[in-house]
Amino acid sequence: MSDKHILKGSLQAIILQLLTEQDRMYGYEITQKVKQLTANELHLTEGALYPALHKLESEGFLEAEVEVVENRVRKYYKLTSEGKTEAANKALALLESFRQITQLLQIKPL
Asked: Across 70-104, where does the E strand assignment appear?
């Protein structure tokens, strides 16, 4: 299965979870954190990331603040109070989906 298939259904949960663990992050930082945490197995493209960030922001789960760092404009994202609740809800829903898929495939967890 490709990264695209894995990330498609879980991208928002991944973003929200990363922002739960770190106060704020900018887009490139998120892509690098995903690579780091998955030992370079999953690659999050800008084409997938930024629409997801914008959707989460428009839904009120993220706030963005723009900052100039080393003459570059960075847009930092952080969770709103609603985003913190949504992060927990999405993580639980995703874990339950994985549990059900594991059960259907009769795979024993390690």
From this structure: 72-79
